[in-house]
Amino acid sequence: MSDKHHEEAHTGPIKNPKQLLITVLLAFILPVILIIGLVTFVGSAPKTGAGVGMQELAQAQRLQKVGSVEIRDANRPLRGGEDVYKGQCAACHATGVSGAPKFGAAGDWGPRLAQGFDALVHSALKGKGAMAPQGGGDFNDLEIARGVAFMANAGGANFPEPQPAAQEGDAAAK
């Protein structure tokens, strides 16, 4: 009797292959299935954040090119200062938005005119205060300089309207 009792004390709870299979399923496969189910449940929740509603747009924005090339007509006639002012500058300078000197207000333009024409053009092209950089927009740098001269002259300056540099062929013909 002691041999039988002694033998039962050293055996485990698994007595046959069916019990072994059930134990393996419960110990290893069931937790894996539960983990996969939890990951699926958490991953399927509605996502919040920018661009979530439009997946294609969000992907296109992430994959967009770093730079771009814009082809313009190099032979188009240059626009004058008044056209540049009306097209790009009047939105802020006509009303004095965000501290912009008002068009024609000598008091607003006085301290700025003391800096000189080149400093005014540099500020227009690179940006200053609340004014964003104007270079690279619809107008080239020379046209922006013409717009600066137009506004500054309306504010009391006497700057000549900038002209394009003479081509070598034009200079030789004269």
Automatic annotation (TrEMBL):
Return the Pfam families for the record. Answer: Cytochrome_CBB3
Q: Does the keyword Endoplasmic reticulum apply?
A: no
The portions of this protein that span the membrane are 20-42
A Gene Ontology molecular function term for this protein is: heme binding
Every copy of the Cytochrome c domain together lies at 76-155
Question: Which PROSITE patterns would you find in this protein's record?
Answer: CYTC
Coiled-coil portions: none
Do you know which InterPro entries this protein is assigned to?
A: Cyt_c-like_dom, Cyt_c-like_dom_sf, Cyt_CIE
Keywords (alphabetical) are:
Electron transport, Heme, Iron, Membrane, Metal-binding, Transmembrane, Transmembrane helix, Transport
Alphabetical list of PANTHER family matching this protein: CYTOCHROME C5, PTHR40942
**What is the protein's given name?**
C-type cytochrome
Taxonomic source organism: Comamonas aquatica
